[in-house]
Design a protein that fits this description.
Blueprint lengths: L1 H12 L1 H49 L1
Length: 64
Amino acid sequence: MTIFLLWCILLVLCWPLALVALVLYPIVWLLLLPFRLVGIAVEGALGLVWAIVTLPFRIVRKLA
């Protein structure tokens, strides 16, 4: 909601810039989408590696 209010203020102050921002926002979002997907995949892979590495320590802690 705050982003919309900021955009409305920009529309009042400088409407050409607000319209350019309105047009470019979906294009930039589409360009950044692959990086977001790669980030999710890398985070999942690192979480899996961390779980595999710490598994023996967690097992020993449960047994002790």
